[in-house]
Amino acid sequence: MTALVLALTAGGLLFAVLAWVPKAGATLEIVLSGIMLACGVAVGLVLLSGDGVASWPERWWNVLLLLAGGLAVTGGGPLTTSVLALVDRGNTRAQSTQKAGEVLRGGALIGSLERGAIFAALVAGWPEGLAIVLAIKGLARYPELRSPDQPASVTPQAVAERFIIGSFTSVLWAVTCAGFLLSH
Predict the structure, then answer these.
(1) Alpha-carbon gap, residue 171 to 127, rounded angstroms
(2) Mean pLDDT lowest for which of 9-18, 54-63, 134-143?
(3) CA quadruple 134, 135, 140, 142: dihedral positive or negative?
(4) What DSSP letter does each residue of 38-98 carry, written as one string?
(5) Distance between CA 20 and CA 112 in Å, rounded?
(6) Is CB count within 10 Å lower at the N or C end of the chain?
């Protein structure tokens, strides 16, 4: 039951994040996100109703798990964007680092998946999962980080800088949310 709840919650949160980013022709993602978000709300209500859960403290633990997981996945995007904006504001190469975001396509979706996986690994008591998630992300992004086909206005250093700052911010947010949950 717990695995199913976590899977539905992760899916719902992922599609909710997709719905927040309006795109042309994104009708399917918006419809799917609405369905998955409704499933997430239904799962939360089932958890509170007590089906299969013995006591109120356990019910509230499940609700906290749902809320902290949601915060880990969805809250990290705006935080990472804000940190990158702060870095760009004091940077003389700001235009280059802003354009680096165009080279690293799919950053918001990848970040959501990354935070969800890190949160789940830590809450499940498997901290080694953090290393696996970061290794997968680094290996998947390596070609983009070293591609000679980048626009002339973007330096490889700017792309790498944006990748590192965004990844660290995202990971620290997910770790913080998991730590908050586990400390209670």
Answers:
(1) 12
(2) 9-18
(3) positive
(4) HHHHHHHHHHHHTTT--SHHHHHHHHHHHHHHHHHHHHHHHHHHHHHHHHHHT-TTHHHHH
(5) 12
(6) C
CA 124 to chain centre: 17
Residue 124: phi and psi, rounded to 5, are -75, -5
Residue 163 · residue 104 · CB < 8 Å: yes
pTM listed for this prediction: 0.71
pLDDT at residue 18 above 80?
no
**Phi/psi zone of residue 104: left (φ > 0), alpha (ψ -120 to 50 degrees), beta?**
beta
Calculate helix-pair angle for 107-123, 56-89, nearest 10 degrees: 140
pLDDT of residue 72: 86
Residue with tokens 């490889």: 156
Residues 136, 118: contact at Cβ < 8 Å?
A: no
Which band of pLDDT confidence, cut at 50, 70 and 90, is reported for residue 129?
very high
The residue among 76, 73, 56 whose CA lies nearest residue 6 is 73
DSSP state of 141: H
